Amino acid sequence: MAPGLINTDLSRAPAVAVTGSRGRLGSALVAALASRPVTVVEWPRPDYDLDVPGAAARLMARDRPQIVLHAAAWTDVDGCARAPELAVRRNTDAVAELATVCAASGARLLFVSTNEVFDGGRTDGQGYRETDSPNPVNPYGASKLAGEQTAIDAFNRAGRAENLLIVRTAWLYGPPGNDFPAKIIAAADRLPPGEPVSVVADEIGSPTFSADLAGAILALALDGAHDGVYHLVNAGHASRLDIAREVLARCRPERPTAPISRSQFQRASNTPPWAVLENTRAAALGVSLRPWHEALADYLTSLC
After folding, report:
1. Which of 25, 144, 212, 225 has the fewest other C-beta atoms within 10 Å?
2. What is the pTM of this model?
3. What is the pLDDT of residues 168-181, one digit of tens each?
């Protein structure tokens, strides 16, 4: 093994670092790793802070993980639209630093990206595949796509392209709350009796449960020498209205809904109207996620 490189033999119990380990996906990854023969290294904020240059290098030198699961990101789509330079620092520059130190040390990096690298203009009813050309329409998607490219560049420069995985997902929900299902319940509880919750009906995506995504990520990152870009989402697709109706039917059955269009829901960011991803590469390896409505039903048992 070359000087300065960590031991990347995954047949032994590896050390796995999780950035953003107390966030939605990060906490799900930590929970999923508990049943694996690994040493879990948590990098939560403020220990790992996307706004602090040098944080990745310091933690890599301290903990020397063989695998880094990069779940930390600034995922506030509207916030990114209001502060695009900050989005670049957090979702691009911080990734470039982490990827550079991982590539230099020989560690495997899995970087979590988003459906918002696509413009959502597809009209054939098919989900976006890993081989489709990205074309982001908002600063969040642009910053994440640039993060993908900086990671690719870093591993290519180091001659270790096989150590990089990029996983795109969509419409993530799950603990610790403040997600779309929780917001629908909160909206219902604020309204007078009988008044419907207005929900966008013409924005379609791939709702994805954080626990299911975490399990699929570990199947790729720990169970084989997989590299490249993967799409991991729960099977099927739904509109925002479809999801809201499922949530309210289980949690607030007396509350009706009213469909509205994307143009009627004012927000700072432009979002893709078709946010559906197709899991092709991982499915070919036997890694698939269950249908979205089954996953949502499981999650709602903790909310209702």
Report:
1. 225
2. 0.94
3. 999 999 999 899 99
Among candidate residues 95, 71, 258, the one with its CA nearest the CA of residue 167: 71
| Residue 167 shares a structural domain with residue 180 | no
CA atoms within 13 A on the CB side of 148: 22
Output the DSSP codes for 143-190: HHHHHHHHHHHHHHHTT-GGGEEEEEE-SEE-TTS-SHHHHHHHHHHH
Look up the CATH number of the domain holding residue 142: 3.40.50.720
Q: Which amino acid is at 96?
A: A
Residue 10 belongs to a domain: no
Could you give phi then psi for residue 250, rounded to 5 degrees?
-90, -35
Of 48, 140, 230, 299, catalytic = 140
Could you tell me if 75 and 195 lie in one domain? no
- pLDDT per position as a tens digit, 192-235: 999 999 999 999 999 999 999 999 999 999 988 789 999 999 99
